[in-house]
């Protein structure tokens, strides 16, 4: 390889890999931590955005998937299976292709953003769309995988969370310390649990002297943990986190409580507003990712934020994953004119 070697090499001593583990990589990880100038000024804190959409398949899922697929291959499996709201399936399909394995994905019919579906198609996954939601798809996967001899690569697979810890490592490595607080979307609740594992592991090893307060945000229409009861029919336009029975529920509650943070919800309107503010920073994240920034702003508005701290919001997925949401929320702002310079000048002289 040239350049960054990927996570299994870069964080080898922190991960369950040895000489028997296939050296699988799409050079995932090493994503930018971008200082958000406008949000920092607006909120009177140093706000950084962890750009997980810069991973090879455009989401944080690659961090856990590289390890989960490598370990499945090491165990002699030839097929991986997962349920997904889209990103997990794109990542599973990509790493399966890379490892010369098959991927089977179960998705909620009609509720996967276009970019994610396009990826799964192109990477050659077997795509099964169920007439039901993510929670039902995951329940089916967990029931059938063993009988079919397939490896489950949802975040109920412990290798997924171990791989996803590396994002917390990278944040600490980049800042030279742990942030004061971390803000992150919550869907199936795996990622917040993985970050907390990572921060704790780094603190325990003496790499950092503190751990951040962990703040996780569900979508209001899918806020099972906040309401302390499963949501039978979860709804939100942030389809990535349209999940009513989070698998890592207990781990997420533990992360919030043990870190001095909280799990809260944000409304679809708050998510949409944060989605636009992120774009003003020059960054394009998918709607679910904006729940982290929406949550940060919500805490500010409720007077709960304080000042002068180092805060990190995780932007979990690339905005290109869901072009329909961008166009729908902004409206089609394209101005169509004749192919003629005078027509273009006339248009541009009219201020909007
Ligand atoms: N953000 C994005 C872009 C996601 O795709 C997901 C989860 C989350 C946040 C929430 O992370 O589930 O660990 O709490 N997507 C899964 C999927 C469910 O199938 O792609 P979580």
UniProtKB/TrEMBL annotation:
Keyword Disulfide bond: no
SUPFAM superfamilies attached to this UniProt entry: Tryptophan synthase beta subunit-like PLP-dependent enzymes
Residues engaged in binding pyridoxal 5'-phosphate: 87, 187-191, 316
Enzymatic reactions: O-phospho-L-homoserine + H2O = L-threonine + phosphate
Key words, A-Z: Amino-acid biosynthesis, Lyase, Pyridoxal phosphate, Threonine biosynthesis
Record CDD domains: Thr-synth_1
PROSITE patterns cross-referenced by the UniProt entry: DEHYDRATASE_SER_THR
Pathway in which this enzyme or protein is active: Amino-acid biosynthesis; L-threonine biosynthesis; L-threonine from L-aspartate: step 5/5
EC number, UniProt record: 4.2.3.1
Pfam family for this entry, one: PALP
InterPro entries: Ser/Thr_Dehydratase, Ser/Thr_deHydtase_PyrdxlP-BS, Thr_synthase-like, Thr_Synthase_bac/arc, TrpB-like_PALP, TrpB-like_PALP_sf
An example Gene Ontology biological process: isoleucine biosynthetic process
A molecular function (GO) term: L-serine ammonia-lyase activity
Modified residues (N6-(pyridoxal phosphate)lysine): 61
Family under the similarity heading: Belongs to the threonine synthase family.
General function of this protein: Catalyzes the gamma-elimination of phosphate from L-phosphohomoserine and the beta-addition of water to produce L-threonine.
Name used for this protein in its record: Threonine synthase
Organism: Alicyclobacillus acidoterrestris (strain ATCC 49025 / DSM 3922 / CIP 106132 / NCIMB 13137 / GD3B)
């Amino acid at each position: 390889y040239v350049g960054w070697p990927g996570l299994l090499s870069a964080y080898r001593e922190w991960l369950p890999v040895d000489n028997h583990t296939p050296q699988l990589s799409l050079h995932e990880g090493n994503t930018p931590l971008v200082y958000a100038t406008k949000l920092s000024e607006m909120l009177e804190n140093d706000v950084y955005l962890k750009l997980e959409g810069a991973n090879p398949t455009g989401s944080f899922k690659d961090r856990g998937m590289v390890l989960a697929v490598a370990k499945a291959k090491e165990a002699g499996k030839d097929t991986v299976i997962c349920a997904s709201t889209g990103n997990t399936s794109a990542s599973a399909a990509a790493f399966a292709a890379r490892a010369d394995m098959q991927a089977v994905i179960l998705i909620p019919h009609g509720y996967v953003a276009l970019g994610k579906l396009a990826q799964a198609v192109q990477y050659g996954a077997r795509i099964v769309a169920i007439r039901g939601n993510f929670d039902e798809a995951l329940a089916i996967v967990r029931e059938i995988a063993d009988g079919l001899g397939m490896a489950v690569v949802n975040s109920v697979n412990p290798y997924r969370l171990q791989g996803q810890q590396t994002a917390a490592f990278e944040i600490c490595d980049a800042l030279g310390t742990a942030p004061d607080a971390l803000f992150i979307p919550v869907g199936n609740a795996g990622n917040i649990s993985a970050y907390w594992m990572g921060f704790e592991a780094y603190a325990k090893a003496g790499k950092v002297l503190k751990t951040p307060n962990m703040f996780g945000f569900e979508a209001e229409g899918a806020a099972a943990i906040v309401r302390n009861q499963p949501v039978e029919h979860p709804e939100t336009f942030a389809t990535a986190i349209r999940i009513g029975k989070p698998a890592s529920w207990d781990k997420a509650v533990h992360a919030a409580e043990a870190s001095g943070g909280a799990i809260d919800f944000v409304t679809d309107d708050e998510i949409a507003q944060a989605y636009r503010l992120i774009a003003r920073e020059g960054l394009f994240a998918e709607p679910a990712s904006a729940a982290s920034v929406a949550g940060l702003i919500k805490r500010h508005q409720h007077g709960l934020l304080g000042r002068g701290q180092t805060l990190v919001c995780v932007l979990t997925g690339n905005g290109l994953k869901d072009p329909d949401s961008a166009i729908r929320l902004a409206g089609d702002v394209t101005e169509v004119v004749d192919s003629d310079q005078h027509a273009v000048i006339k248009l541009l002289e009219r201020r909007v």
